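Human: We require from you a standard protein entry with sequence in single-letter code and fold as C-alpha cells, and nothing else.

Assistant:
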Amino acid sequence: MLYVCATPIGNLGDVTPRVLDALRSVELVAAEDTRRTRKLLSHFDIHVPLTSLFQHNEAQKTEEVLRLLRDGKDVALVTDAGTPGVQDPGMRLVARAVAHGLEIAVLPGPSAVLTALVAAGYEGEGFRFVGYLPRRAPQLDASFHGWRRSGGIVVAFETGQRLPRSLALLAAILPDTHVAVCRELTKVHEEIVRGTLADVSARYPVPGPDTDHAAAIRGEITLVVDLGEPIDEAAAARPQARTAAERLLSRGLSRRDAAAALHVCLGMPRREAEALVREVAAEG
C-alpha cells in the first residue's frame, strides 16, 4: 500500500492521527527532504527508514518504491509541507502506482492553498490554483491577462525573492485588483496582507541594487487574487468595432465590404459584423 500523507505546512500540531498511524506502520518513508521529515518523525517519536524522493532523483526513486510496493511492502510518501503531488515531487510515483494497479490511500490534511483561500476572505463559487507564478515577465503578463478574462479567484505560490517583482508587474496591469499575500501560514510569524495590488505592491517594494540580501522576504508564500467577473471580450471590443464601422462607411465602403473588413481585420464573426454595420448605417 502506498500512503500519500499530507504533513503540516507549519504547525506540527496540525498533523492528523491517521497520518501518524500510517507513518508508524510503514516500512519506508519516501520524503522530499529527509532532514525536514526526520524532524517531524522525531517530534512524534516515530522511527522508520527514510529515503529521499525529490526533483533530481524522482525517476530512479519512483522505480525503487514501485518495486517495494509490488513486493507487498507499505510505503508512505510525504513532502516538505502539505499534500504530495501539489507543486511537489511525488505525482509521478502516484501516477505510476495507479497505472500498475497498486493500492493507494491518500490521507488528507493541511493545505496552504485552502488555508490561504479562506484567510483571504474573498467570496466566490470556485477558484483556480496555478502553481508557482511564471518567472519571466512576458509569461506572467500573458498568464495574468488570460486569468483576467476568465475572472474568479486565482491562488498561486511565489517565493520571497520574486514576490516584490511579481506584485509590481501585476499592479502595473490591474492596480485596483484585490490580492492577499499569505506568508508563513500556521507558523509563529504568520502574516496575511490584504489590499489592492497597488497598495500591497507598495508594501513589498522591489529591492534596489544595494539592498541587503539578509532583508529579503522569508518563508513560504501563497497569493490569492480576486479577479472579479469574467470579461466579455466581445462586448469590450464592440466600441472599437463600432468606431471602425463608422470610419469605413464614411469613406464610401459598401455595407458588405465594411462587414468583410471587420470580419477579417478584427476577427468578428461575419454575422455580428454585418449586423453592426447595418446598425451603424441606420443611425447615420
